[in-house]
Amino acid sequence: xxxxxxxxxxxxxxxxxxxxxxxxxxxxxxxxxxxxxxxxxxxxxxxxxxxxxxxxxxxxxxxxxxxxxxx
Length: 71
Prior knowledge:
Layout: H1 3-14, H2 26-39, H3 56-65
Helix pairs in contact: 1-2
């Protein structure tokens, strides 16, 4: 997945225009993870830090550390 795909997914779910300083609630978080699971089937299950990733930067860092995102 590319960084731009992650941003588009977050913007789609949160209905915002900028993701850089955006944090979201638990329902949005769940919806973002569902959309990411569709794009990365079976690869998110082992990332334990995703449950705390309630901002773009935290989510990006989790995916980058797991080598699931490319710049």
